[in-house]
Amino acid sequence: MAAVMAAPVAALRAWSEAVARAETAARGALVATAPLLGSLAALAAQMRAARRLPWDATALGAFPELRARLWRKQRGAAEALLEQLGQRREELRAVRDAVGAAGSAVLRLVEERGPAELGLAAVLRRGPRCPSLADVLEGLQDVERYYRHLYLEIKLLLQRLSLDSLADVEALPQSWERILERYKEDEVVQDTLLKVSLFVENHHEVSCSPGS
Fold it and tell me: What is the Cα–Cα distance from 198 to 16, expressed in whole angstroms?
């Protein structure tokens, strides 16, 4: 049994390492995104205020080019922030892809081996401290879904951004907080990492025991 499970165990160990790296990268991207959104929202508020300012009724009316110059400067700063946000989005896309690729590698291996080699009983067998391989595979798909949905929500939020709709840009921090609220509890990730760890450790002990 230990020999039969050697390949899935190795693949799960590689999955666990990939997800740990991806989790660190995702947290870094999320942390870096918040201040960018805050700066963009503040800039949008300034741009809206500049639009409402009665330029011609103030001393600034004597400098008609000043209004256009200020607008170009503010828009350039906003576009620079949007570019940085695009980079954070790409980092989250890379996380989604890495988790998906790692999970697919495990599932493909198990599918190739199939019940004929692994045995259905072995796939479903649970121990007192060890989840079944079926439990672990289900967890892998849950983790892939978690990061896929997280990326999709953030992608859609950023895609909707337009400097032609400054009120929406100004409301960005609130929209961002709602997304973080939905994904702040990554229990599915932590639970699956624990399941994989228990599964790998259990089969390592079995393979190292006499007569295995």
Answer: 11
C-alpha torsion sign, points 29, 34, 38, 44: positive
Cα–Cα distance for residue pair 137/110, rounded to 1 Å: 9
Write out pLDDT tens, residues 37-66: 999 999 999 988 887 777 666 766 667 777
Which among 46, 34, 82 is positioned nearest to 166, based on CA atoms? 46
- Per DSSP, 60 falls in state G
3-state secondary structure of 132: coil
| 115 Cα distance to chain centroid | 33
How far apart are the C-alpha atoms of 158 and 9, rounded to whole Å?
A: 39
Look up tokens 């997280």; give the residue: 150
Q: What is the enclosing helix (H) or strand (E) of 178?
A: helix 172-183
Could you tell me what percentage of the chain is helix, strand and coil, using 3-state DSSP and rounding each to the nearest 5?
Answer: 85, 0, 15
What's the CA gap between 17 and 155, in Å, rounded?
A: 26
**8 A C-beta contact, residue 124 and residue 134:** yes
Three-state DSSP class for residue 211: coil
Does pTM surpass 0.85? no
